[in-house]
Amino acid sequence: MAGKRSKHEFRANTLPALLTVGPVTLVMVLLIAVPLIYVAVMSFCSIDEFYNVTFDFTLENYVRLANTDYLKIYAQSLIIAFLTTIICILIGYPFSYIIARTKSRKKRILYMLVIIPFWTNSLIRIYGWRTFLGSSGLLNALLIKLKIVSEPIEFLYKQGTTILGMVYCLIPFMILPLYTAIEKLDGSLLEASSDLGAKPVNTFIEVILPLTSGGIFSGSLMVFIPCLGYFFVSDILGGGNSDVIGNLIERQFQSGNNWPLGAALSIILIIVTLILVKIYQKLGGDMDSLGV
Amino acid sequence: MKKKIISVVSAGALLCSMLTGCGSSAGGSGDNGELNVFVWTEYVSESAIEAFEKESGIKVNMSTYSSNEDLLAKLKSESKGAYDVILPSDYAVEYLIAQGNLEELDKDRLTNLVNIDETYLNEAYDPGNVYTVPYEGGVACIAVNTSKVDKEITSYADLFDPSLEGQIVVLDDYRAVIGMTERSMGLSMNETDPATLAEVEEKLLSLKNNIKLYDSDSPKSALISGDCSVGMVWSAEVALSMEENPDIKIVYPSDGAYVFLDNWAIPKGAKNYDNAMEFINFMLSAEAAQMNISDFPYLCPNTAALELMGEEYVNNEAKNVPAEVIESGEFVSYLDTDTLAIYDDMWTKLKQ
Hints:
The complex is a heterodimer of chains A (292) and B (352).
Chain A: H1 2-42, E1 46-47, E2 53-54, H2 60-65, H3 68-101, H4 104-119, H5 122-133, H6 138-145, H7 159-184, H8 187-195, H9 200-229, H10 231-236, H11 245-253, H12 259-282
Antiparallel strand pairs in A: 1-2
Helix pairs in contact in A: 3-7, 3-9, 7-9, 8-9, 9-12, 11-12
Chain B: H1 2-20, E1 34-40, H2 46-56, E2 59-65, H3 68-77, E3 85-86, H4 90-98, E4 132-145, E5 168-170, H5 174-184, H6 194-205, E6 211-214, H7 219-225, E7 230-234, H8 235-244, E8 248-251, E9 258-265, H9 273-283, H10 286-295, H11 303-309, H12 311-315, H13 323-328, H14 337-351
Helix pairs in contact in B: 2-10, 5-6, 6-14, 7-8, 10-11
């Protein structure tokens, strides 16, 4: 009797729970928890004379990262990410506003203009920029043809080029949440504001901006964080002159062959990310609008 | 009914091709077993592999890597016996031998070893060629676009000249760039003394303003397009860029070049040792070596192949690197982890 009952309970409660939550939990554990723990453990490991990872506990990897040279690259990385985010807001906001406020078919076309490049491999698009901006590239050829300049301008391999590439790659992440926020904006509030005598500037600053700030925050977070890790952009467009944290990590796992140090760098990046997400939540950000 | 038979047959054929693995190529593949080859990308000619398959009836499964560190990491992480033939560079050979990770070669079966120029045998990383035989090699040399640079450049030391500000493409490889700095100061590329390395660091950082681009994958593109007018890159890259842009000239540094030599080897525990020996011997043949250098014009130690290539190739000093360049050059060697940490920190400083 008792056996039958527990069988019944298994069918009624445990089984559905296992079937619905089980796979998700399994995926989360295997693809997120296990790798994270692996990286965290590795960051405290040592290496032997042949660069094999050995499980001797050490803090040396973290001590090495406190070095001023690494700190400078962190700072550089944060500056690049900050500038990228600001530029993304400045370009993305008006653009999202226009899409959200456009009616009819044009809206879909504008929306697709953001989405379609986003589907193309970003590495290929970044190589495209390199060809376009090169000293024998299309842009320089055009400028010379129009007699605006006599010698090709050196666009490539500067910090500015890295930021350009980052903005280009990441701007959809800014536009999409902004679009959602502006779309939700209640038109009657804007009418009320103008009826009460506010100038368009005041309406924007006091009504529109506060109501869409959620979109700005989530967009900023989704631009800022990948920016710290997009090493290929700084490699290809920055020519290796403007490293971000991602470059440091990549180097330790490849040519540096020092996996524990690379793991420690990854942990630092994860901590920076967590701090930013915490700030986002403190500012009243909604985790759902990040798409997580 | 007929349709059904066709579909069954084709399904069977599909299954067979899946079981034998895709990518099987021409020739009586598979009759005499198979061979797992793990080599540098863009380095071993497809036609040479096909010729081997045809002649031996052995099926070759080729996979590639793009740095020695990649190779070493894969050997570490894959199960033993995953690869039968590998192609490590000098210092990686030294490392693999030190760890006991290579099988000895059966010299009696290397009948084509006579084709190899003795200059390239018996190197310090494998005295007596017990574990390895040379394949191709090259030099980290200097490329100069003579239409843009007036200054005469003859050595690594000249690259530090302030007039070259923002003009140089260098390999994105810390041992190569730091090694070049050491050679320019008259030091070895494998210095370990911390005090000396502090001086090297100072010199290295003075190069920072001259470097426009770090690129190991295809530094020739920046040279050909004119984005960079000077380069410190692999010799074959210069050879190929010279074909596209006749203003580019190759300079072998007078202060002694960074030299590398890649070698055939068999990792410990290889499952197809006999096939691997047959493959290596085939690659040492004049015909196979000729196919390889036709596609990838690196330094070729195979004298028999050079004879087949004819005058034009032999006289092209970018492709056929002069022997004295190799003799006056230096190999990178495997350094202890503490020293490499200093090298790595220097590199981080340079790139910030």
